[in-house]
């Protein structure tokens, strides 16, 4: 049996169990969705095995339907078999529900702070090459993610970037200039704290980018976006604690926010001069 077949079978079985528990509880899809914060369409897609459930949906449904761990016990095997697109969908669901987002990016501007042109340049440099139609879809998705920053109750975003991010040119210089301008604008207009880790400071993360999502009333989650998939740390308290410790170190080791903003502004001015010449 291929991994794709296993993943499909797991999703179908999860959907059957969700439907069984919901029916036993006497709830409609709309009623269950209302109780746990999802649309009836989403509940229906999960029940039909057409959408991988997020951990939040899984745990919430297990609790509301008194599943006694039936659904939660299936979540990790599903995650292990999930495709990159399914993993991304799960991450986006968690990101949209987070109360706080702490992210360290050693090489790129964080996705939530990218301009459309920069995001297109990033996607265009992936190898193997991404088909043009898929590039447009990925960029559109990235732009839609940023809506959480202008929501009524946006998450508190704390972004630390390596100094190399300011110098790594993706696209032409005008794209980089506009991207740095956007960083400064986001810092002023949204609940964003921005710091730069200078070249002269050791990197305890060894160049590995990661994101910590914190939630009201739920344990934090660590997400690492690697080349072929996403890696989560949830129940692994030691791993989550280690990443929190590293991020706290980065917070102290990085330039203070005022100095970071000044450095970004100086780099933006340098790019502006080269664009004009």
Instruction: Give the SSE order as H and E letters.
Output: HHHHHHEHHEHHEEEEHH
Can you give the mean pLDDT? 89
Number of helices: 12
Count the domains. 2
Spatial sequence of strands, sheet with the most strands: 3-2-1-4-5-6
Oligomer: single chain
Quick overview of this protein structure:
It is built from twelve helices and six strands.
Word description of this protein:
Strand 5 and strand 6 form a beta hairpin. The N terminus is likely disordered. This protein folds into two domains: 80 residues, 434 Repressor (Amino-terminal Domain), CATH 1.10.260; 190 residues, Endonuclease, Chain A. It is of the alpha/beta class and 277 residues long. The relative contact order is 0.11. It is built from twelve helices and six strands.
Which key phrases capture this entry?
alpha/beta, six-stranded mixed sheet, Endonuclease, Chain A, 434 Repressor (Amino-terminal Domain), 6 strands, 12 helices, 277 residues, 2 domains
């Amino acid at each position: 049996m291929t991994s794709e077949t296993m993943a499909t079978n797991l999703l179908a079985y999860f959907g059957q169990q969700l439907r069984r528990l919901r029916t036993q509880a006497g709830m409609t899809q709309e009623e269950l969705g209302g109780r746990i914060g999802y649309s009836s369409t989403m509940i229906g897609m999960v029940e039909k095995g057409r959408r991988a459930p997020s951990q939040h949906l899984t745990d919430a449904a297990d609790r509301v339907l008194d599943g006694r761990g039936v659904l939660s016990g299936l979540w990790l095997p599903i995650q292990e078999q999930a495709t990159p697109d399914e993993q991304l969908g799960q991450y986006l669901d968690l990101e949209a529900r987070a109360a706080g987002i702490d992210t360290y990016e050693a090489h790129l501007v964080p996705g939530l702070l990218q301009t459309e042109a920069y995001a297109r340049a990033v996607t265009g440099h992936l190898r193997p090459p991404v088909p043009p139609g898929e590039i447009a879809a990925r960029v559109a998705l990235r732009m839609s993610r940023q809506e959480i920053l202008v929501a009524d109750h946006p998450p508190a975003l704390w972004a630390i970037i390596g100094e190399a991010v300011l110098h790594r040119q993706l696209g032409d210089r005008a794209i980089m200039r506009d991207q740095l301008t956007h960083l400064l604008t986001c810092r002023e207009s949204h609940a964003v704290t921005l710091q730069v880790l200078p070249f002269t400071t050791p990197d305890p993360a060894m160049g590995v980018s990661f994101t910590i999502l914190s939630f009201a009333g739920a344990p934090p989650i660590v997400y690492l976006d690697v080349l072929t998939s996403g890696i989560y740390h949830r129940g692994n308290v030691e791993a989550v604690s280690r990443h929190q410790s590293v991020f706290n170190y980065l917070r102290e080791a990085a330039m203070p926010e005022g100095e970071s903003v000044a450095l970004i502004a100086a780099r933006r001015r340098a790019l502006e001069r080269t664009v004009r010449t």
